[in-house]
Design goal:
The complex is a heterodimer of chains A (530) and B (313). Chain A is mostly helical. Among the domains of chain A are: 74 residues, no CATH class; 62 residues, no CATH class. Chain A is built from 29 helices and 2 strands. In chain A, strands 1-2 form a two-stranded antiparallel sheet. In chain A, a hairpin with a 2-residue loop joins strand 1 and strand 2. Chain A is elongated and about 110 Å long. Chain B is built from 8 helices and 12 strands. Chain B is globular, with a radius of gyration of 20 Å. The two termini of chain B are 36 Å apart. Classes of the chains: A mainly alpha (530), B alpha/beta (313). Chains A and B meet through helix 1, helix 2, helix 3, helix 5 and helix 7 of A and helix 1, helix 7, strand 9, strand 10 and strand 12 of B.
């Protein structure tokens, strides 16, 4: 229902919009208007034929469908697809018994068209008739039937009540919402249909019609010559994952020549792990796969299970990620899943901090610092401060803020000398906890930085640390042209009831018209200082 | 292998520049171009970097460093550019750059986004307006079906072996296959228009092709694609003329320059068409695995032909 609604809504919106882009013209077959005297103007051509009503069109098509030659029956079946309704649906279903395959095909396509336009069949008898065409000799008809299963399932699987007469008495009994036994058999046989599309569709939709997939059939489909059928079958392993023949088949497929199949096997082995212990062994074997992507996927899934991964495998994962171009979904999955390796993953992330992709570097740095507690060791994260990408630097700084202990002189010096303002801002923030020697060496360098935020951050740190002469520094900063600096200085002075407040009062008295003075007066009043 | 060595190897791949005027906007087919580039690396001897280079402005200096610019017109908020970007685009084309405007053809009756394309034969109005500013003296012309761009690597339509299906398997329903082979994509061609600069085809526009390039990690095509097919039947010339209809009509330019009249009802897909020769045909819609796989195979081969043509010319 939701799909039907959104489908109609899209078309409605699109058609409305296209009315602005290209206004629809009137039907050229509409009758021309007559002149005022009731006679046709001599210049107007002969009256054009009038279109029939929908009822008439459907009626005529229905007649053609029942009594016409093959060509007319085909045309009627195609046309009826444009007029969804109970009558046209019944006519189309009736035509499914036509001796001509062309008519049956056209009828199925029209029924599918009506269903896609929001008019699926619902009457159980009609729907069962459609489904019975799963046994049609024509492959196109069978394909259409299987593709339609999701659309007809609600009619097909309806329960209800029926009245039967037993010993002369009317008895009501329920009709279960199951597939009729003969249709059920038809569905089972369709798993082995000669056509790969029919097999694939049935694998995809068999659960809708509550037809169980026997283990033997699943094993057969896992070995299907069509790769798409195989992939579909792999997606259905969960229904028989504990069966030994299925396990053996999955093991065989783990060395399939197609990488796509092997990647799917990794997924299957992961999901089926709880059903049989052999799946874990399959994953372990796949960590030796020739393709690094398969190896990496298998390894990270094992790591998620808590298993330790061999060093050579970790090296392969590292090389795979280093060579990866862009953040595809597979690469992203592996990149994040490397965390599951714990300490073993640290070396991988460390290597990836030099990847050419900035997105990769951002994630690598965050994970590296997190897994190794690298924020405690400036040698670990200082190289990241030179990264040319601001996003990467931001990612690193987010991991460091509030965690970095006191920096030594050389370490602070590296930050102060950075060409990037965000790094120097961080340097200003670290002044709060930096060694005194480091502070003395570089504090004033940051105080005269070209960037306002660097200066204000440094000033704030000086105010907190109450460096020697801090009151004088703050008082001088009140004279700065930049309001942000003035504000920081004011806030710092307000924290000291004696010297700080006194200095602020003096400033306000000498500079009553200054921008910061109004706020300063208000703050002083709040403190009860006159 | 050290990171620098890996970088050096990587940097030898040809980079495709992709315009995304709003880099944070959602792309309709994000897997499309990377999948196509990966397929090209697997099936040809070219080496493309599978990570497209995204730019948000045509004045980005990196554009001039790379030979091909790909633009999905549906992914842009509009095609209105300031003067300096128009100048940059002209300079790019004159210095040998190739521009591929995907969804540069879009029949107006489709509306903003009905999720399907229609093979009209003229560029969409926004593209026309854009290039009237870039090259006022030039115009887009339909590429003939025998143009080399349709044969630069792949020739013809996909066969069973190309689709990796069994030899005796029906690759498409019969009416669909007939229409595809004779009208929709004869010999693997499509409705393209192009513009030449200094005697060289420097810009092409087509209906959306990227929808047919994407693959997931298992190698399955994404997203599903359906077909719109024109079908005729006995007495349709009379029947469709008189059949009940309460919608509107839209004119669309055909390959031969004449106009088809499309009959479309509110809230539904186009119903039927009256062709210039007086013939009436009905539109039928086909979906399913075989349809989608075939379409994807075709669009991928076509995309490869376009990019390889751009590289070689």
């Amino acid at each position: 229902m939701k799909q039907r609604f959104s489908h109609s809504l899209v078309f409605f919106a699109g058609t409305t919009l296209c009315l602005f882009g290209q206004a629809p013209s009137e039907d050229p077959l509409a009758p021309t208007s007559l002149s005022a005297n009731g006679r046709q103007d001599g210049n107007v051509s002969a009256p054009k034929p009038i279109r029939s009503s929908q009822a008439e069109t459907v009626r005529k098509a229905g007649e053609d469908l029942r009594f016409g030659e093959e060509g007319a029956r085909v045309g009627a079946a195609k046309l009826l697809g444009k007029y969804p309704g109970s009558l046209s649906s019944m006519m189309l279903v009736g035509a499914l018994d036509d001796q001509s395959a062309l008519v049956r095909r056209a009828s199925m396509v029209s029924l599918a068209e009506q269903a896609n336009n929001g008019y699926p069949l619902y009457d159980k008898s009609l729907v069962e008739k459609v489904f019975s065409k799963l046994g049609d000799p024509d492959v196109e008809v069978r394909r259409e039937v299987t593709a339609m299963i999701p659309r007809i399932v609600s009619g097909l699987m309806r329960g209800g009540m029926e009245v039967v007469e037993i010993n002369g008495q009317k008895v009501y009994r329920s009709v279960p919402a199951n597939l009729r036994p003969d249709l059920h058999q038809l569905a089972i046989r369709a798993f082995s249909d000669e056509d790969a599309i029919v097999r694939q569709n049935l694998l995809k939709y068999h659960q809708y019609i509550r037809v169980a997939l026997p283990a033997s059939t699943l094993v057969s489909l896992l070995g299907d010559p069509d790769q798409r059928v195989q992939l579909e079958a792999l997606g259905r392993v969960y229904s028989n994952a504990s069966q030994r023949p299925v396990v053996e088949k999955i093991k065989e497929l783990s060395s399939h020549p197609e990488k796509g199949i092997r990647l799917k096997v990794v997924d299957v082995a992961r999901d089926s792990n709880r059903y049989h212990p052999a799946y874990r062994g399959i994953l372990r074997a796949m960590t030796k796969d020739a393709d690094p992507e398969v190896t990496s996927m298998a390894a990270v899934e094992l790591a998620r299970f808590g298993e330790r991964i061999a060093g050579d495998v970790i090296e392969r994962i590292k090389q795979y990620l280093l060579a990866a171009r862009g953040m595809s979904s597979q690469v992203t999955t592996i990149l994040y899943a490397v965390s599951a390796m714990g300490k073993d993953g640290v070396q991988v992330y460390r290597a990836l901090t030099e990847h050419s992709s900035s997105k990769m570097r951002s994630i690598a740095w965050q994970r590296y610092l997190s897994l190794s507690s690298g924020w405690q060791t400036p040698e670990a994260w200082l190289p990241g401060m030179s990264d040319r990408d601001k996003g990467v630097r931001d990612a690193i700084l987010m991991s460091l803020r509030g965690r970095v202990k006191s920096l030594k002189t050389e370490e602070l010096g590296e930050l102060v000398g950075s060409p990037y303002a965000d790094v120097r801002i961080f340097a200003g923030q670290t002044l709060l906890t930096a060694d005194q020697e480091a502070f003395d060496q570089y504090g004033f360098d940051l105080l005269i930085d070209e960037d306002t935020v660097v200066r204000s951050t440094t000033l704030r740190a000086m105010g907190v640390r109450r460096v020697t002469g801090w009151v004088r520094i703050m008082s001088r900063s009140l004279l700065d042209e930049d309001y942000v600096i003035q504000r920081v200085a004011m806030d710092a002075l307000l924290t000291d009831r004696h010297e700080g407040v006194k200095a602020l009062k003096e400033y306000v008295a000498r500079n009553p018209q200054a921008r910061i003075s109004a706020l300063a007066r208000a703050e002083l009043d709040r403190l009860g200082v006159r | 292998m050290e990171a620098q060595e890996v970088d050096a190897l990587r940097s030898s791949g040809i980079r495709i520049v992709t315009l995304m005027r709003n880099l944070n906007a959602t792309r309709k087919y994000p897997d499309a171009l990377p999948s196509l580039l990966k397929t090209m690396n697997e099936e040809t001897s070219t080496r493309f970097d599978t990570d497209p280079l995204f730019i948000s402005e045509l004045t980005d200096e990196r554009l001039m460093e790379n030979p091909i610019l790909y633009v999905n017109c549906d992914d842009q908020p509009n095609l209105e550019f300031p003067a300096e970007e128009l100048a940059a685009l002209r300079r790019y084309m004159e210095q040998g750059g190739f521009v591929y405007l995907d969804a540069g053809i879009k029949a107006s009756f489709l509306g903003a986004d009905l999720g399907h394309s229609y093979a009209a034969w003229e560029e969409r109005p926004e593209v026309n307006e854009l290039f009237r500013q870039v090259y006022p003296e030039k115009s887009f012309l339909p590429l003939p079906r025998n143009h080399e761009i349709f044969r630069s690597f792949y020739k013809g339509l996909p066969k069973n072996r190309d689709l990796m299906i069994e030899a005796n398997q029906k690759r498409l329903p019969e009416t669909v296959l007939t229409f595809v082979e004779q009208e929709k994509w004869p010999q693997g061609t499509y409705s393209f228009v192009g513009m030449k600069v200094k005697g060289r085809l420097a810009c092409v526009a087509s209906p959306i092709c990227a929808m047919g390039w994407g693959k997931d990690e298992f190698g399955s095509w994404i997203p599903p694609i359906s077909f719109r097919i024109r079908e005729s039947a006995e007495n349709f010339d009379e029947n469709l003329k008189l059949a009940s209809f309460s919608g509107g009509t839209y004119e669309v330019t055909r390959e031969d320059g004449l106009k088809d009249v499309i009959y479309s009802q509110l809230g539904q897909r186009p119903l039927w068409v009256k062709e210039p020769n007086g013939r009436w045909r009905i539109f039928k819609y086909y979906s399913g695995e075989e349809i989608s796989n075939y379409a994807h195979a075709f669009y991928t081969r076509l995309g490869m032909n376009v990019f390889l043509y751009a590289l070689l010319n």
